[in-house]
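Give me structure tokens for this 345-residue protein.
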Amino acid sequence: MKRISKRGGFTLVELLVVIAIIGILVGLLLPAVQAAREAARRMQCSNNLKQLSLSLHNYESSYKRFPIGYTDNFANSGTPVGLPGADGGWSWMAAVLPFIEQGALYQTLDMRYAPYGTPGTISDPQGRNNAACRIPLATFRCPSDIAPLTRPINAGSPGGIDAIAITSYCGSMGPFDGANCGVEAGNRMGPEARNIGLLVVNRPRSIGEITDGTSNTIAIGEVSWRPLNAAGQGSDRQFVLGNVITTGAVNCNNNAPGTNGAFIHLRSTRKKLNGPVAGGDKHRSFHSYHTGGANFALGDGSVRFISENIEHTNTNYTAATLNGPYGTYQRLSGINDGQVISNEF
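Here you go.
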């Protein structure tokens, strides 16, 4: 007589229990994996800023000045007034290319002309500037930023371009963003020049001017891509090498997201770090996709992660508020305000 053996197996209930346990474990694991990935992205972002801060110091060692934050008005630099390219300008990022192993790209630039002149015309005779400005560079990109590699602006128009490389970093123009906000050229030099940032418009800074101390001064900070909403709020202009042509002088107080100017390459600390899009003037402030704050390169070459909860007062310049009151975050961007800053920021 044959003996019939029964094989053991899972019941439906047991199978469901196993699946549920696996689901719970995966649910616990995914946040840890995502946190690890974000930590790696944040570290890469910090490394990028370290390279950029060192490039500023290498530039300063070579020229005894830090680069100009943003060069405005090309009327006297090779492009006749009234023709495409007569305004617009190059950023500090173009100036430091030789110091981040991009010397070959730098050699293609003709800085007598605006960055986005029309190829083959007097505004960009060789078409080299237009070509160079569409090249994305990893050193200028935070891995957490969702910005596209390039974006078009005024495509098909004089001075326009169908691809502009996007950056995740901007220079610090100081604690103010109104009126002259870092513009130092002719009669546009305002009282703010006595308390201003390291990278400003049309004027290079020397290391000796940082009387507050290089370790207490922001040089470069993060900016993150925020597509414009229906109200035109956001930050979708973060160009690397230069700015498209404009029809007038830079006035930072009026540079809304839909216009051109220094806010493309520079930011102030007047507005809150990682503030809201609606009413937060994203095009004027530093902000990142890192949780809780953003990375900043200081004047001494170090990189710090600054909390979005840092003391901040949103005080803009007036004759009465030249030296405050404003919070630690704003004081960090001034190179010579003379106010004490705690090492605990």
